[in-house]
Design goal:
Elements lengths: L12 E7 L25 E5 L2 H12 L4 H4 L4 E9 L3 E3 L3 H6 L4 H5 L4 H12 L4 E5 L7 E6 L3 E3 L10 E10 L17 H11 L12 H4 L2
Parallel strand pairs: 4-5, 7-8
Antiparallel strand pairs: 1-3, 2-6, 3-8, 5-6
Length: 218
């Protein structure tokens, strides 16, 4: 029997954030380095977060910057992008991914091999990207887009499908306190731990049940 198709996000417009010190937050060409959802041969892949704290957390995790004092020394651009993308697979919470047959542990595993294989499968099946829990910041969601993107001016008419309006919204360092919330390589993911505990408890939420960081913005 063929596997069930994966769940698709019920919206196609996303405000998403990314750190980048270049003049664009996007890849128009393939990267020479693999990441969670792609191998270099898979083509350009865009990694964004649905809240700015998660973008900062990805920076801290990538560079192993573990203290607020060290983070305060950063001078990094945070970009916001207005993404229009249909057919995005929604693995945005662990239960939804598991129900679709994809391992919840793989979503935040330090070993990216299962996500890379799934990203290749989804790309070849014609999906536009994937929502998944942030490995760096529990309670946040990341948006990965398949294919090249180019930055367009915020507020200008979008003439190309690959164009995404984006602008810099912050330059500097994150708020004090972020370092204690970042999940660094080798650490436990509190959201995954909570999901596992709830699953063992018959799906009943406990005291550790989290509200998403994107929801806390509003």
């Amino acid at each position: 029997m063929a596997p069930e198709p994966p769940p698709v996000a019920d919206k196609s417009t996303f405000a998403a954030f990314r750190y980048s010190d270049y003049d664009t937050p996007f890849w128009a060409r393939s990267s020479t380095r693999a990441a969670r959802w792609h191998e270099p041969a898979d083509g350009p892949t865009q990694y964004l977060s649905l809240d700015p704290d998660a973008a900062w957390a990805e920076k801290a995790r990538a560079e192993d910057t573990r203290t607020d004092a060290d983070l305060a020394l950063l001078r990094t651009k945070i970009w916001v992008a207005l993404v229009e993308q249909r057919n995005v697979v929604d693995y945005g919470d662990f239960g939804r991914a598991e129900a679709a047959g994809f391992s919840p542990e793989a979503l935040v595993d330090d070993d990216h091999s299962r996500c890379r294989a799934e990203g290749k499968r989804l790309r070849e099946a014609g999906y536009g990207g994937v929502l998944a829990p942030s490995a760096a910041l529990s309670g946040s969601t990341n948006l990965t887009l398949f294919g090249p993107r180019v930055r367009s001016t915020w507020g200008a008419s979008v003439l190309l499908r690959s164009s995404v309006p984006a602008c810099v919204v912050a330059v500097g360092a994150p708020d004090t306190g972020l370092a204690t919330r970042v999940r660094f390589f080798g650490g436990a993911h509190s959201g995954l731990s909570t999901y596992g505990a709830q699953a063992r408890n018959g799906g009943q939420p406990g005291a550790e049940d989290e509200t998403s960081n994107a929801e806390k913005l509003f």
